[in-house]
Write a structure and sequence with these properties.
The protein is an alpha/beta fold. The strands form 2 sheets. Strands 1, 2, 3, 4, 5 and 6 form a 6-stranded parallel β-sheet that branches. It has 13 helices and 9 strands.
Length: about 325
């Protein structure tokens, strides 16, 4: 079963290791994602996020992001016989024909651009093709999904004026708009103003786990209506608030719960995968990128057809990429 994963934080993990004096080879390492594990997991495409915690950056968020982008291009050069970058949809098709895994560069937290459209355009030139508009902090684009409360002024906090300009320019450039981490009102601002489909790269169902990073049933329906996709996140906090039950049943089975629920409320065509590997600590049975067969098994036990699983594991994401890239 070919796999497309919409989000991992492996670039951050590699960069942190390098800064601490430990050089990890991408070919094979102790992280959730490396070339060996991607091959074993039968990956068609992995999205690699350049991410930094803006409030705790030892240098500057922009410098850290550029360092991670540099690592991405270094990986593409060193492992060119096995992986190749994606800048447009035809790259995915060519890479598949050449037997290579595709790698798509993203940014988690558009705030590293300071909301500056010229910086956004430079990120596009560096190969960025998806941006998560916010992380866990307010930035010049908008507000994060940290709670369900109103601001001190009594109004809900969504996209800022500069965020609307950012959204428009991303669509002009062909950069995918990612609403994971964005506030609820920000989600609806994107839904109201976006001219093209958008995605939530690594989120789950709030009906099954009430974390604010997850999407409500109504949000899932809106995402589907707009032609978007949601990547199922393997983070335990997003999967089940009952940690004992989660440990007993396993991550694969619980991710399957979310997939089944999303299919019921919004349809099969909105579902994709967004592991959050190397951005999460404990993963239980979905230990790394080589273990995707466990999720296949969990869905097969529930009666999902091969066609439906193909959509979840790769085809829905590819349809989305084809329209935006």
């Amino acid at each position: 079963m070919k796999v497309v994963d919409l989000h991992c934080d492996t670039l951050m993990a590699l960069s942190k290791a390098r800064q601490s004096g430990i050089e990890k080879t991408f070919g094979r390492n102790d992280l959730h994602v490396d070339l060996f594990k991607l091959k074993k997991g039968d990956y068609l495409l992995q999205c690699f996020a350049a991410f930094t915690d803006a409030k705790n950056s030892p240098s500057s968020p922009l410098i850290e992001t550029l360092q991670e982008i540099d690592i991405f291009h270094e990986i593409m050069k060193v492992y060119a016989s096995d992986m190749a970058p994606v800048y447009c949809f035809s790259d995915i098709e060519r890479n598949r024909e050449e037997g290579k895994i595709s790698a798509l560069l993203t940014i988690e937290d558009g705030g590293v651009t300071a909301g500056d459209l010229s910086v956004l355009r430079m990120m596009h030139q560096l190969g960025v093709r998806m941006i998560t508009l916010t992380w866990n902090y307010e930035n010049p684009i908008g507000y994060p999904a940290t709670d369900f409360e109103k601001s001190a002024t009594g109004s809900f906090r969504g996209l800022k004026e500069q965020g609307l300009a950012f959204l428009s320019e991303m669509e002009n450039l062909g950069i995918m708009v990612d609403v994971s981490h964005l506030s609820d009102e920000g989600f609806y601002d994107v839904a109201r103003h976006a001219r093209k489909p958008f995605l939530a790269s690594h989120s789950d169902s709030r009906s099954l786990s009430s974390h604010p990073r997850n999407l409500t049933d109504h949000m899932l329906k809106v995402l589907a209506e707009k032609g978007g996709i949601v990547g199922m996140n393997y983070c335990l906090t997003f999967l089940d608030e009952d940690r004992d039950r989660l440990r007993q049943r396993g991550a694969a089975e619980t991710v399957a719960d979310h997939i089944e629920h999303v299919r019921k409320v919004a349809g099969i065509d909105v579902i994709a995968l967004g592991s959050d590997f190397d951005g999460i600590e404990e993963t239980l049975d979905l230990a790394d990128a080589s273990k995707m067969h466990l999720l296949v098994d969990a869905l097969e036990r529930r009666g999902f057809s091969t066609g439906d699983m193909d959509k979840i594991f790769s085809q829905n994401a590819l349809r989305f990429f084809r329209e935006i890239l």
